[in-house]
Amino acid sequence: xxxxxxxxxxxxNCREAFDFYVKATGGELTAVSTFGExxxxxxxxxxxxxxxxxxxxxxxxxxLMGSDSPPHMWSKPAGFGVSLQVDTPEDAARIFGNLAExxxxxxxxxxxxxxKAFGMLHDKFxxxxxxxxxxxx
Length: 137
Known about the structure:
The chain is an alpha/beta fold. It has helices at residues 14-25, 89-100; strands spanning 6-10, 28-34, 52-59, 62-68, 82-85, 104-110, 115-122, 128-134. The strands form two sheets. Strands 1-4-3-2 form a four-stranded mixed sheet, covered by helices on one side.
């Protein structure tokens, strides 16, 4: 079996982002480890020990994963988005509204020719999201 998951990198605020995503989506935070928990010998600065080395949220049958990037390796997210498929237009509207808190809506949630509900936004962490409730095929 092959699977594909989204892995997001943050500029020191992964814990805040993943707490926000759990609340916004209703997903389950299933793993969090810090750089301070890494095996001895990893070159980690004292101020980075509390940063997230790996976090994972279960969203239905998929995962959203992420970590903090060392400052010299981080770049602003661009050129991709997280697509979240939900079961009902009501779920789409609720989750979309939650994710939009503090962010910027680029396409308001609405029915379209290809979906019962679809909307796009950039969340307050700069991550682009597409929330969709697809039509039956």
